[in-house]
Write a structure and sequence with these properties.
- There is one protein chain.
- By secondary structure, this protein is mostly beta strands.
- It has a four-stranded antiparallel sheet with strand order 1-8-3-6, with no helix packed on it. A four-stranded antiparallel sheet has the order 2-7-4-5.
- About 6% of the residues have low confidence.
- The protein contains one helix and eight strands.
């Protein structure tokens, strides 16, 4: 039997709520991590929230086809494995829409 390396398991947890608005925002700045983050849009949202990298969600103007700038976070939520949270940018098609997130990670 091979022993389990405890350094491979998450040692930190983060949770919160974010309302990105109609202007793209960087999710977090300078947070290096190795783990997973789960996003769930609020049931009360009337639009969509999009996620992508900086050039993907930039340049949104008046009812543009936002799918060209990122992908929609589905109503059921999405889990992403990532090594650097600062790579993620978010934008909403409607001001006031928001989502919750849960991250389990190894602080790098």
């Amino acid at each position: 039997m091979t022993p389990v390396n405890p350094s491979l398991y998450p040692n930190k947890i983060a949770t919160g709520n974010i309302s990105p608005g109609i202007s793209p925002i960087q999710l977090f700045q300078n947070i290096k991590m190795n783990g997973y983050i789960h996003f769930v849009p609020k049931d009360t949202n009337s639009g969509n929230i999009y996620i992508g990298n900086a050039p993907v969600v930039g340049g949104i103007t008046n009812n543009a086809d936002l799918t060209a700038y990122g992908f929609i976070i589905p109503k059921s939520g999405i889990t992403i494995s990532i090594d650097d949270l600062s790579k993620l940018y978010l934008v909403s098609s409607v001001n006031g829409d928001s989502f919750t997130y849960f991250a389990a990670y190894i602080d790098c």
